[in-house]
Amino acid sequence: MSEVVQPASLALAVSRPKTSPFDWRRAVPLLLAAPLLIYMLVFYALPVVAMLLRSVNDPTWTLSHYATLLDDVVFQKTFWITINTSVTVTLGCLILGYPVAMGLVRAKSMAPFILVVILLPFWTSVLVRSYAWMVLLGRHGLVNEALLALGMIDRPIRILNTPLATQIAMIHILLPYMILPIANALRQIDPSLIRAASGLGSTPFMTFRQVILPLSMSGVAAGTLLTFVLALGFYITPAMVGGPRDITLSMLIAQQVDQLNWAYAATLSAVLLATALAILAVARKLPGVGNAFRTSMR
Amino acid sequence: MSKKTIGRRTTLGLLGAGLVAAPFIRPSFGQAAWPEQTSVPDILKGSGEVRIATFGGTMQETQQKAYFEPFEKITGIKVRAFPGSDPTKIKAMVDTGNVEWDMAQLSRGSIMNLQKRGDYFEKIDYDIVDPGVEKQFRFEYGLEMLVWAQVLAYRTDAFKGAVPSGWADFWDTKKFPGDRALYGTNSGGFPEMEFALMAAGVPPDKIYPIDIDKALASYSKIKKDVFKWWDTGAVPIQLLTDREVTMTSVWNGRMAALQAAGVPAAVSWNQGLSKRDAWGIPKGAKNKVNAMKFVAYSTMAIPQARVCLGIPYGSVNAKSNEYIPAERLAVLPSAPDIAKQLVPYNYDWWIDNRETVIPKFNKWLLS
Q1: Which neighbouring-strand residues pair with B248?
Q2: Cross-chain CB nearest to B244 (options A160, A252, A261)
Q3: Is the ipTM of this complex over 0.95?
Q4: CA quadruple A268, A272, A277, A283: dihedral positive or negative?
Q5: Domains in chain B, please, with CATH?
Q6: Which residue from A39, A208, B35, B239 has the fewest beta carbons nearer than 10 Å?
């Protein structure tokens, strides 16, 4: 098929006059994407730029808002809490998600069912899920009642409104973003490699360590990045189920918007955006991770 | 409150709780008993519409019946209500010249805070405002239209019959064990530094100007017991219902519904803060003349009394009390017996000091 097409397109290219001002054929993909591009430009890019500008031109052109962050204890603590929460949640997703991804890939007839279970949280609003965690983790919630009934505790323990509650709820919300890229990478592994490994006397664990794990690293990288960057921006969940001191950067931004300190809020937003972009930029340069971007696109 | 007039659901709640000692509040009175405004000065009549931003919920439902519908009927001006009033939205609307609300329910604090940063509100035309509206509720860029209270609420089943009264009791976790919740700063609010000071023994009339460091030092004593710094009125109600806390601060209007649902909880008015909501007219509002008419109408004695009958909040019009049964008056934050237990919230102090308090409070909270 391609051999037939090639000469034709070649002929077309040759026959085209060099002075042609505009190549309509090449413009087609761009034209098809144009409505979305314009939409994103007008309703996303421009407002974001306008918002970020506030961090340097309110009330006059100045970098003072950024300078004050250097000795702003509240910002630094909040930033640390945000990073710390995101790292913990990402690790939790990885530890819980990897086995699920393996199960999903190996399951034959059960696979669609497992997929639905994984995706179910996707289709529920974050707000509803956070409320559900309040019911489960509350002082008189299901978890406490169960632990009491089993005699594992004497009186209800505080889970709701602690950092642990934030981590549990965020892991629940973000798990699909970890599982799906890993499952994708696992599915790409040629089964004959695994058969070859065991044929050469490898134990299942060695096969996992030396064949499966290295070959799935692109998926792990993609899932980790996706989960971490999404976790950086969490707002509703920590606000609803988190502890009294669980103030994330997004919560501080929301508070400052409400307090009409828009320049400060814009500065914090710029820092959050820059952090996410920096992590993506650094990660792309890491060996093997660049592939992850392509893998996750498939 | 005589037993005969207690609604069926309240009665069930009382039976369920096995407690009659706490003052239970009926959330609303049957509309048939509401007074009717049968005439208004011609100057309040007009045509067209007025777009009003409210805080939504049961408050807006009450406003609908109390003065939106009667206003339409009597003045010929159509009312369109929008839940979600928010000073940040008004700032954005006026900044971009796209003012979508003709008036909004706000507070004196948020109106004056915005006005400090630019010209965001129209001046109120006091020539058409009812003389019954007391002086303390009037200010240049807004008119207060609702009196409410931020008070101590507790589970009546938590302390073996002991009744907490005032913030020293709230701070005393030995005598009154259990977790606490207090108002935080997450949705544009301000910490209840007044409560912290009273807990430390500052007399109510010596609270302002607030000694911020002293308040934070007092807060430190209860910090580990504060399970949640709440941000919206529904949160403390849910925490009391789910037995997550034994004591919290609340907005008084929310408690009526909770008690009607049978939750064994009560309010202690002593040392509560008396606060007010206000109407503000955003600068450049298209129907500002109609908005001014509505401001005047809604603060007249009868429309104000109708609100008090619909939801347990107080009136700004001294003559409203004539239209409110004594039994109802006794549970409103504007009732003389209750009002004298409350501390008037000082909006002026907060307008001047909010930018100092928030960073200090944030820093304290995170330390």
Answers
A1: B153, B181
A2: A160
A3: no
A4: positive
A5: 31-147+276-339 (3.40.190.10), 148-274+347-366 (3.40.190.10)
A6: A39
